Amino acid sequence: MNHIVTVQDSVTAFAGFMEPTAAELDAIELESPLILAEVELLHAQIITLDRTPNELDKRRIRRARNRVLGARRDLVNRAADAAGGAA
């Protein structure tokens, strides 16, 4: 009979190094409006997978796409401002 042994100590020994750094958390926070806009677009697209999109669905998708584009624009502009350039 073979015993199953866990390797918990070797897995969690480096857990402190696997946590995101403060810079990575700041980057995630900076990108969160874009992430949320993309999730909203995906949700609007998922709603229409099993049916023909009606006018309301088309408007919802169009607004969600515009929010994604706006969030991308804002993110690029913030990055350009931080780098000292203009986008």
Give short descriptive properties of this protein.
87 residues; 3 helices; flat
- Please tell me the overall pLDDT: 86
In terms of DSSP E residues, the strand content is under 5%
| Distance from first to last alpha carbon | 66 Å
Q: How many H/I helices?
A: 3
The number of distinct β-strands equals 0
Instruction: Please state the structural category.
Output: mainly alpha
Task: Kindly describe this structure.
There is one protein chain. The relative contact order is 0.10. This protein starts with 7 loop residues before the first helix and ends with a helix. The protein is mainly α. Helix 2 (22-47) packs antiparallel against helix 3. The chain contains three helices and no strands.
